[in-house]
């Protein structure tokens, strides 16, 4: 019973951050050009994760960014965005983002099958949560850097501009890592090398692993 409760709380957190990420607003601080091929490495002092992002993209860190109706909130969110990419008057669309959730217990191989069912149920209802949200690639299992989970790709309308995003839900020990890649649909293919480099460079906190019931 305890494992069932823990799994459901994780799934609710996943849904909340997915919908939040669709409308996340980044302060327009300007500057910089397009990606040059050079990269920077972000290292989080508190949660110990790292990832690479283009050196000409802008970084924004936010702790406890939003209160949500499920009672869960991200312990840490950090995003890098393209200052010369698609944008509206108040926000940038082309971005990568990591959100961290602290879990009430340890997620390991013994709960992964049940957790998969919970996450699948949540994802199945996404299109009813936002009228312009459409799933374009169904949930699939992923594994990277010793943590496992699932990803899903969806399209939506952001301030009148068609956009697309993939959300990764990765679990390691007592942490849930949510990786988001997002861009205007017109830039989606061009941004793929940046997105792939971001995901492949992501490294969770040392010692944060799952036993792997999900696969690549």
How many strand elements?
A: 8
* CATH domain class name: Alpha Beta
The major sheet is characterized as: 6 strands, antiparallel
Which sequence of strands runs across the widest sheet? 3-4-5-8-7-6
Rg, alpha carbons? 16 Å
Beta-strand share of residues? 35-45%
Helix/strand-derived category reads alpha+beta
Poorly predicted regions are 1-9, 17-23, 29-34, 63-71, 212-216
CATH topology heading = Protein Transport Mog1p, Chain A
Q: How many domains make up the 3D coordinates?
A: 1
Average pLDDT metric: 76
Tally the helices: what do you get? 4
CATH homologous superfamily?
Answer: Mog1/PsbP, alpha/beta/alpha sandwich
| Proportion in helices | 10-25%
**H/E topology pattern:** HEEEEEHHEEEH
Per CATH, the architecture is 3-Layer(aba) Sandwich
Silhouette: globular
Tell me the distance between the termini. Answer: 29 Å
How would you characterize this protein structure?
Helices cover 24% and strands 38% of the residues. The chain has 216 residues and is an alpha+beta fold. The chain has a single domain (2-26, 37-201), classed as Protein Transport Mog1p, Chain A, CATH 3.40.1000.10. Strands 3-4-5-8-7-6 form a 6-stranded antiparallel sheet. It is globular, with a radius of gyration of 16 Å. Mean pLDDT is 76; it is low at 1-9, 17-23, 29-34, 63-71 and 212-216.
